[in-house]
Amino acid sequence: MSKQTQAPQAARQSGRRPSWLAIPLPKPVALVLRLGLAVVALWAAIPKLTDLAGAQRAVHAYRIFPEAIGNLIGIGLPLLELAVGLCLLAGLLTRYAAALFGLLMLAFVVGITSAWARGLNIDCGCFGGGGDLPAGQGARYGWEIARDIGLAGLALYLVLWPASTASLDKVLRLDPAPKGAL
Q1: Each residue of 29-68: pLDDT tens digit?
Q2: Furthest-apart CA pair in the chain: how many Å?
Q3: Residues in contact with 138: Cβ distance below 8 Å, sequence separation at least 6, in sequence order
Q4: Are 38 and 83 in contact (CB under 8 A)?
Q5: What's the rounded Cα separation, in Å, for the pair 158 and 91?
Q6: Alpha helix (H) residue ranges in the chain
Q7: How many angstroms separate the CA atoms of 97 and 90, rounded?
């Protein structure tokens, strides 16, 4: 076995991260990233919370869920976005909040892709509003999918390196796993 193949194998056996995962962001940069994702989550939650009927209408426009489940999602989703946004804002359980944020973004990508593939012409409702678009107005699915994939990627970075300045994780000693552990 060559030295090149032995090194990654030894890293896996020792529980260390592979070398390509060894460079975390500086903590102030991670703070900006964390706060940016918090703003996005809160920006998505607040308009929906102020218009729960509209949030439910947006979920129903995707034509994926039965009415009762769509109604629950229309109420639960903005509450979840609010909780994730507040956790990211405070730096509380950052790794888990970022993971949940990323999973939400991927779920939105699946929903938007499904609507696009089925020829629906809807507003995604990501930041309030939502529902069927008027005739002549086209959806912006490509942009919405790219945006959500990018946000999921940023969230993944915080999952891997959640440590940032000004966080409750540090104050409450909920710091991320020690260096070298995933």
Answers
A1: 889 999 999 999 999 999 999 999 999 999 999 999 999 9
A2: 64
A3: 121
A4: no
A5: 11
A6: 3-14, 27-49, 52-61, 67-90, 94-117, 141-160, 168-171
A7: 11
